[in-house]
Write a structure and sequence with these properties.
Blueprint (H helix, E strand, L loop, with lengths): L1 H43 L13 H5 L3 H31 L3 H23 L13 H11 L2 H19 L4 H128 L1 H44 L4 H27 L1
Helix pairs in contact: 1-7, 3-4, 3-7, 4-7, 6-7, 7-8, 8-9
């Protein structure tokens, strides 16, 4: 029983170790999925930009030419449409995804889109009559620091500006705004490409998450089956414990019955010893009577007849006692054989009853023999 229980416990420990190993693998796969997105960002040099909000005077914002306002409105419309397109794409993706990794990716993409919109708003310029002014160096740093394409566009625009001035009578501020619009468009293209790559990564991560969820469900079903088997084994162990306790109770009862039988056997042996002592005493008495009979035969014939009769009676009693002694010894040997057999067979309840019945018959036989000897 102990060996079987130990084997079952070992099997259960192995199954628990397998479940722990698989859960660790799932955790590592989730970490790898999150690391893929971060690695993609590191390759594309995407960083989380803070929302630069510069204070603008109310008087300068109200004044300005109609042409500059129209150009600014066009720039804002283009940036707003691009941002709205990106936001709608990411909203559709957010409805499909339910995991924490996808949420983090969406938040990062929204931050990038918001940062581009903020940079575009900061790039608005107005005429110098009490209006907002921005350092061209800071704008060039913000535009050229994020992507190398902006630097190339600045160089190209620097080459194109004098030619345009020759053909059209356009102010330098308008040309600067056009160049900034081109830079913003290139930035939008790079951001869109990065967003597409991030969407691909998201789809791959979602597929991987689906696979992991299916694998997790399989592991959960296996774990439930293992728990059921464990419960079955525990119930079986409880039943076996009950059986063992019942057997122990039976063994204790058998041991008590054995001790009682041994005490009875000791009593029987003591009775036999007492009977043997009596027999020896009777033999001594017979010898004394024989001597007396020889003396009486020499003395008187009448006493001889009486002595002969007494002698005959005593001899009969001796024969009966010897027969009883032989029977007692035979019964005692039978009892010893029965007790040995019962010890070998672990003494069942039915056999103990047979032994008690046999002992009763044996005592009845002894009582009958003793009564018959006394009556004679």
């Amino acid at each position: 029983m102990d060996a079987v229980l130990l084997e079952r416990e070992r099997v259960l420990f192995r199954l628990n170790e397998e479940i722990n190993a698989k859960s660790r693998g799932l955790f590592e796969l989730n970490e790898n999925a999150t690391w893929m997105t971060t690695k993609r960002r590191m390759k594309n040099n995407i960083r989380k930009l803070a929302n630069p909000q510069q204070q603008v005077d109310d008087s300068g914002s109200n004044s300005g030419d109609s042409s500059n306002n129209k150009e600014n409105d066009c720039d804002q419309l283009t940036t707003a449409t691009a941002a709205s397109d990106t936001e709608t794409e990411f909203n559709e993706l957010s409805q499909c995804t339910t995991n924490e990794d996808t949420k983090s990716l969406l938040e990062s993409e929204k931050e990038t889109s918001i940062s581009t919109v903020d940079t575009k708003v900061d790039l608005q310029l107005v005429k110098p009559g009490g209006e907002k002014k921005i350092n061209n160096k800071a704008v060039a740093k913000q535009a050229g620091g994020n992507n190398p394409g902006a630097k190339n566009v600045n160089k190209n625009m620097a080459d194109v500006v004098p030619k345009v001035l020759e053909k059209k009578n356009i102010s330098s501020e308008g040309l600067i705004k056009c160049s900034k619009v081109a830079i913003i468009q290139t930035e939008l293209e790079t951001v869109q490409k990065q967003n597409e790559a991030n969407v691909k990564d998201l789809n791959l991560a979602l597929d991987r998450l689906k696979q992991l969820e299916s694998f997790k469900e399989q592991l959960l079903t296996k774990n439930a089956a293992l728990e059921r088997t464990v419960k079955k084994f525990e119930e079986r162990n409880l039943e076996l414990d009950k059986m063992v306790k019942e057997r122990e109770v039976q063994i204790t009862n058998g041991a008590k019955e054995l001790s009682a039988a041994r005490t009875e056997i000791r009593c029987v042996t003591q009775n036999n010893q007492n009977l043997e002592k009596r027999l020896f005493k009777l033999q001594e008495d017979v010898d004394g009577l024989k001597v007396k009979l020889t003396i009486a035969n020499d003395a008187e014939k009448e006493t001889r007849d009486a002595a002969r009769q007494e002698r005959l009676t005593y001899e009969k009693q001796i024969k009966q006692l010897r027969k009883q002694r032989g029977e007692v010894l035979a019964d005692y040997k039978k009892l010893l054989l029965v007790v040995d057999q019962m010890k070998k067979q672990n003494i069942h309840a039915d056999q103990t009853r047979l032994i008690s019945d046999f002992e009763r018959d044996y005592f009845k036989h002894l009582d009958d023999a003793s009564t018959s000897s006394l009556s004679q």
